[in-house]
Amino acid sequence: MIAPSARTNRRRKGLSLVELVIAGGLTGLLAMLMVTAWAAFGRPAVDVISRSRLAREAALAVASLSEDFGGSLATPDGRVGPKALGRLVGGMAPNGAEIWLCYDGGESPNGVADWEEPDTIVTYRVDSGNLIREDRSSGIANVAARDVYSLGATVLSDRVRIVLSFRHRNVERTLTIEALEP
Amino acid sequence: MSTRRRSRSRRRGFSYLEVQAAFAVLGIALAGLAPIVMTQLRLMARIERRLPSNRIIYLVPPDDSWAAKLGAAARRSLDFPSGVAAAEETAAVYSVSVESVASSAADDSATVVVTLTPIEAAPPP
């Protein structure tokens, strides 16, 4: 003969309602803790990858612009010749989406932006998410910064205002730069 | 085969207690990562402050033209450089003279031909 308690144990299948309620409550608590922990630490930790990448690209863009707005461009032979040779003499912003810089050139630099040979023209534009710097005289173009989705430029009375917008994944960053005339 | 061994062999998956314990261990491991994440965020904020988004970054060329010639880059500044006037939009001003006016009653339209002559801005006093 089987004892009553043993029979009860063998017949039992599944969980009681109280057990289910407790299990559900504990699961809900765990889920809430997980969501809170993700919002507090997980999301910022994921975003910091994009933020650091944008900070690096912004620093690269500013460094490139700082070089070109320094006031003088090296000639293919180096920084030789008179002081006026390679001097920044003009800037313009065609369509407000590009930057064109003119550097004086020739045997006797005339101090005027001619926008043609022998002056050297350097341009900045955005192409496929890259900030492209191009030396139009030599035809050499290089990527100054990546993750750039827009470039806005306005020529003011004595400076050029540049608005650069960066984006990587869902993180965006916009820099406003004012480059003063030399 | 004993009943106990048969019962074990039939068992599949984890008990709820085991899942709870696993989550607790995972939580402790994640909590250990928290200081690293916080340090990373602090450093990131410090890097971003060097090129802030909410301020204008001024690129100030060197005063000495020889320094520029020799390759000195424009100085980066978050403060408005002293001795520089506030920026003004370069807006061209034109003198407008009307050349001809033609109106059409058929389509209720008018055509005006004008000539624009740029006016040189007066030098500041």
Order of helices and strands of chain A: HHEEEEEEEE
Please count the helical segments of chain A: 2
User: Judging from the principal axes of the Cα atoms, what is the shape of chain A?
Assistant: rod-shaped
| Chain pair sharing the greatest interface | A-B, 46 and 42 residues
N to C succession of SSEs of chain B: HHEHEEE
- Report the principal-axis shape of chain B: elongated
Whole-Å distance between the termini of chain A?
106 Å
Distance between the termini of chain B: 109 Å
User: How much of the polypeptide of chain A forms β-strand, as a percent range?
Assistant: 25-35%
* Secondary structure tally: strands of chain B: 4
Main pleated sheet of chain B: 2 strands, antiparallel
Characterization of the model:
The complex is a heterodimer of chains A (182) and B (125). Chain A starts with a helix and ends with a strand. Chain A is built from two helices and eight strands, in the order H-H-E-E-E-E-E-E-E-E. In chain A, strand 7 and strand 8 form a beta hairpin. Helices cover 33% and strands 32% of the residues of chain A. Chain A is of the alpha+beta class and 182 residues long. Chain B is α+β, with helices and mostly antiparallel strands. Chain B has three helices and four strands, in the order H-H-E-H-E-E-E. In chain B, the strands form two sheets. In chain B, strands 1-2 form a two-stranded antiparallel ribbon. In chain B, a hairpin with a 4-residue loop joins strand 3 and strand 4. The radius of gyration of chain B is 38 Å and the shape is elongated. At the A-B interface, helix 2 and strand 8 of A face helix 2, strand 1 and helix 3 of B. Strand 8 of chain A pairs parallel with strand 1 of chain B.
